[in-house]
Amino acid sequence: MRVVLPNSSGEEGKSGLVDFFAVQVAFLLFESIFCFVSAVLSAVKNSRDVKAKHAVVFLNVLAGFMLLFDYLTYILPGRVTPFSSLVMQVSTLAVFLICDLFLVAIIIYESIVLFGHFDLKREQRCRFRFLTCCMLSVVGMGMVVISHFSGLYYTIDAENFYHRGDLFPLSVLIPVTGMAIIFSILLQYRKETTTSRFLALTSYIVFPLVGFLFQYFFYGFAYMDIGVAASVHVMFIENIIYQNRQIRIAERTDIRTGLSNEHGCIEWIHTKKSDMKNYAAVYFDLTKFTLLNRKYGVDVGNHILSAYASAFAAELDPDEFMGHPNADQFIVLVKKKNLPEILEKLKGVRVQFKDDTGTELTESIAARAGVYEISREEIKGEEVVTYARTALNHARSMGKETVYMTQELMDAIETRRRFDSDIRYALSHDEFIPFYQPKVNSKTNTLCGAEALARWIHNGQIVDPGDFIPIMERNDSICDLDMYMLRKICADIAAWRKEGVEIPPISVNFSRRNLADPDLAKKIDAVVRESGIPKNLIEIEITETVDEFPLSVLKSFVDALHDLGYGASIDDFGCGNSSMSVLREINFDTMKIDKGFIDRDHSKDLTILDHIIKLAIDIGLKIVAEGVEQPSQVETLRALGANVIQGYYYDRPLPKEKMSERLQNPKYDKE
Ligand code: C2E
Ligand code: CA
Ligand code: CA
Q1: pTM score of the predicted model
Q2: CATH fold of 262-405
Q3: How far, in Å, is the centroid of ligand 2 from the Cα of 571?
Q4: Which residues contact 608 (CB under 8 A, 6 or more apart)?
Q5: What is the whole-number distance in angstroms between the Cα of residue 453 and the centre of ligand 1?
Q6: What are the tens digits of pLDDT across the range 302-317?
Q7: What's the mean pLDDT in 503-524?
Q8: Most informative mutation of 440, 453, 593 for ligand 1 (most atoms within 8 A of CB)
Q9: CATH of 30-248, one of 1.10.287, 1.25.40, 1.20.1070, 2.40.70
Q10: Closest ligand relative to 476 C-alpha
Q11: Mind giving me the DSSP string for 489-523?
Q12: Ligand with the closest atom to the CA of 464
């Protein structure tokens, strides 16, 4: 508020090198804009605490208006038009009113920060003091209005200059008293909020208060406005810090249970440093949670999960930790001496909850656990979590209640991991090659086809598929291998064609995992066409088991192959559990009878084999008998009508060069 200094002639502030008047005016305008901008930013920000957000917006808008009106009272004195006088009057009145209204805005914000809500009903803590502040605010504003017309607090002269009135000290006393009350509440309940929030609130009270008092004794300078502006800045910065902290907490928290998630767990381990060697990590999952979810529904299931978490966490020591990494899995970090007790507890935690109808129920929930007893001082949180989780995975696959992560298990995991990366390396460095196992017509003893089988040339040794296919199926690199093999096989066929030898159809194995790709048939076709070989030289082998995908997916794939001009063969027929439905639903061209049927020569097996072969012939399938080793087996198969034989009886899988020789000499010297 610009005032007339004793002996002033409207030249005040223009002394010295710095034009203080201009600085003040610019400052007020800038700060006013800042307050409005920060109000808008607060309003549009996504905040979980909507009440606090609204209170901050209210405070900033008030501060913005106060600074704006005060700015006007600085630039208007000396201007004597009716409009300037009116604006001067209104602005002065507004500044005084806002000073009192601030009390209400601050108590609302303070109450929300400290107690989470604000209302003046009976339950409100510090209700009396809050009510007193509200009354002071109302009385203060009433007095301002009265004084405006009676000149008690201030007068504005004909030149538009402001003068303090006799009762001006009262206009200061009312808000100062209110602020003191507000400050007393803050001091009393400072533990209810974070230190930074407490300091921000303190600044919101103390800065304007000090400014106010300064202005009272040394008037002529906008001390109060500086105080208000400073506190808005502090609040703004603190809000950004607070929001960031909230985001960090949210990133580390599972919303369903309020427990830390995996990030939080890793961070907790990090803070414990070398202390961790006294701890054990237990990663566990609730054995019948899926069942409970199905029985009571997902919402009740979530309540059960929270109730379980609270019941279990309540049993832990204060320096132990419980986290909820995902779904029905938890992790606890407990002192080693408490481990036996915790494992005992995992056998059954009684959880109370309400079902949809509100009925109180109790369930005893057991868990399966993986345990890792930390033995190293320098260990990363990620490692602890991985070891415990891997132990749990082992417990699950072995059907055990509890599995401890041991050195041997860790070594095995490490070996697998290394093997995994070796396989990936092998794929990108051409270490896989196709071998070819001939299929022979046993009536004529002539080559009539071949199956391509992958071999891995690893450190100079030939590795058989049994050692890498299961791993590749697990990490999905099998799909890359199958496409890679197809390319190699097409290239070999193209080379043989150049040599002028006659080539029978070659079958290529495709893992069922490939069925996830709806464009698989098209991709196969693209590779074959690119190599320039005739399509009828390639046949696709796929196993019958349809555990992962519905039969319709396999059917679409086989239909697409047919549309594109390729044959499809059903591998290992008789192994799976859906053989008959596969035959009914899908139009395969060839049936490969599993080695298992051919090995056994019980009369019952022979009867089944006989029926399978008859069935295949009836529905127009070609038959290949696999894994044939003995002359007697060839005899039997011949008698049953299965003439195409693939097995050691004729040939083992052959490297490309040996297969070239076989192609040039397709007649076998057998009976
Ligand atoms: P499969 O497709 O059933 O291939 C037949 C397997 O039986 C081959 O084993 C072959 O060497 C073996 N075998 C053939 N005749 C006889 C015999 O008379 N006696 C005995 N004891 N075994 C015989 P291999 O080459 O070790 O391949 C094993 C499996 O690996 C294959 O079984 C196939 O499922 C898979 N596989 C091989 N190469 C590939 C490939 O490129 N892609 C995919 N997805 N799987 C492949
Ligand atoms: Ca096969
Ligand atoms: Ca097979």
Answers
A1: 0.55
A2: Alpha-Beta Plaits (3.30.70)
A3: 6
A4: 574, 597
A5: 6
A6: 899 999 999 999 989 9
A7: 95
A8: 453
A9: 1.20.1070
A10: 1
A11: HHHHHHHHHHHT-----EEEE--GGGGG-TTHHHH
A12: 1
